[in-house]
Amino acid sequence: MRLPFAPPLAPMLSSAADALPGGDGWQFEPKWDGFRTLVFRDGAEILLQSRDEKPMNRYFPEVIAPLAATLPERSVVDGEIVIVGAHGLDFEALLLRIHPAASRVKLLAEQSPASFVVWDLLALGDEDLREAPLAVRRERLERVLRGDTPAVRLSPATRDRALAEDWFRRFEGAGLDGVMAKRLDEPYRPGERTMIKVKHQRTADCVVAGFRWHKKGPGTMIGSLLLGLYDDEHTLHHVGVAAAFSNEVRKQLVTELAPLRTNALAGHPWRDWAEAEAEASAAGQRMPGATSRWNRGKDLSWEPLRPERVCEVAYDHMQGTRFRHAAQFLRWRPDKRPDDCVYDQLEVTPAYELERVFGARDPGRPRGESRHGS
Predict the structure, then answer these.
(1) Which of 72, 201, 206, 216 has the largest CB neighbor count within 10 A?
(2) Is 31 a catalytic residue?
(3) What is the model's pTM?
(4) If you classify domain 203-345 with CATH, what class do you get?
(5) For domain 13-199, is the CATH number 3.30.470.30?
(6) Cα 148 from Cα 171, distance rounded (Å)
């Protein structure tokens, strides 16, 4: 491809927050519930690249022609592939597309065609726009995008925080995840978490690295999935479990996870947890086999899985480096790499001084009087 830069390109990423940022200088956009996709176009040649930098043309063949009719002749754009169902965005329909049989993909493309929502312009002709501020990239995108069809849509954007908050409330009914906030003066930073996402619940993408059998016994049903996140040193920590499944799903998981049990212990990051429990505790690494503080008689034996699958879970809050309560399984994420399941994706709560919590007083102040006045 004759473009200012060649694929693959790591997409710019986001960190979670519980509210939209205040002040000026922000662009707000709806958060689309789909597959993150970079599109590289050089004339008749179009490449769809996934979030984990893999080609996706074979899974979404129906979007190629609309992209050719809409995008500039030579360009690179960032956006999301979505499928619109009867009740809004349909992520489950997207998951069905990741199928090895071309005939199956072709049938699904006819029955539930995908669309592409574009929100950023990274290259145009011979220009590399990654260093240009978002405000410039957005203005150029709006000028060069040819039309706005059901197959290729320009994502709405606003600088009005009140409108973005209204979007957050109203658009959930259409299946959107929340709202994104991006600095208008920021360049495009591949692979960096410079955007802010505000979702309707706290979620995390976790590595599934093992499981526990149901209390009915081995081979019956899956009791819980063991979840992991990588730290900055690429050490996989056990952060909790996802356990709220119906009995039907528990039985299905036995078959679904069976291939990942083959040679799972060889090179597994938690392989030596039993022998190294004391050492790991001293080093601060969370392991899945430690004795429960709350139920000494509970069987915490577990079965390893090759850490190759990613799932999205909902959680209430963190206690230190792990989920305070069992997480809720939401969906598998075949579009995410295990290496991307890191702690810095999690919502960061601003630091709050402990002394302020306890209402510390200056020495000699009367009881009940704060340092800011009574």
Answers:
(1) 206
(2) yes
(3) 0.71
(4) mainly beta
(5) yes
(6) 20
